[in-house]
Amino acid sequence: MAGGRLADEIVLITGAAGGIGAAVAAVAGREGAAVAILDIDPRGNDVAEALADGGILAAFVQADVTDEDEVNAAVASVTSRLGAPTVLVNSAGRNSYADPVEMTSDEWDSLMAVDLKSAWLTTRATLTAMIESRHGSIVNVASIHAEQTSVGYFPYAAAKAGLVGLTRSTALEVASYGIRVNSVSPGWIRTGLVDEWLARHPDPQLEQVVVDAHPVGRIGTPEEVAEVVCFLASSSASFVTAADWRIDGGLTARYAIPPTT
């Protein structure tokens, strides 16, 4: 493999058919890693093929990250094709537009399965090999909603707060094996999920309100998140574990959102 921060690493990324996951795949490949994409969306194969066309060793495995058997089979497939994953990036996630009274138990379970349980399933499936080799890094993609949320994000905020907690507790469990576990908490990032939320909102000026709330004056990009993820995954961050890094353009540093006219 080519040189780079992730040279000789085998990076498994969930939810990499698009958005932040696909951007992580591209940056990881640029940094010398072999890249495995795990997604229920068949478009993940297009991402893998694009990487391969660029000379990057890449593979796609279609699987439901909420299904224990499919996750285990997917990790086994990646291991047989590329080798045991040494880096895991849990990027799979979905939005929720629910009311705390009207939401059903099935709807709650479905959201938690994607945004929280799946990270545990993939972590469990990859940790055995990492522990045996005493080498590995896990990065979970959480959200600023884990700490600072607003109306309309129930129970997305709860799931992301759980993911940060999962990150910290897992980090403590595996630190003695030389394995690091961190999370990133992006803010407003130009992904399909954000575009979906903006499209659902009745106020056509909402996007400008969001932009104006950011000290840097813009929404972030998936590539900017990917750069931080791959740094945390690499040995350049060898003394960083159990941490949650905000990637929000300074949004959560504000005391309040400026009034709009």
Automatic annotation (TrEMBL):
InterPro entries: NAD(P)-bd_dom_sf (IPR036291), Sc_DH/Rdtase_CS (IPR020904), SDR_fam (IPR002347). Pfam families: adh_short_C2 (PF13561). The keyword Calcium does not apply. Keywords: Oxidoreductase. One of its GO terms (molecular function) is oxidoreductase activity, acting on the CH-OH group of donors, NAD or NADP as acceptor. It comes from the Bacteria. Belongs to the short-chain dehydrogenases/reductases (SDR) family. This is SDR family oxidoreductase.
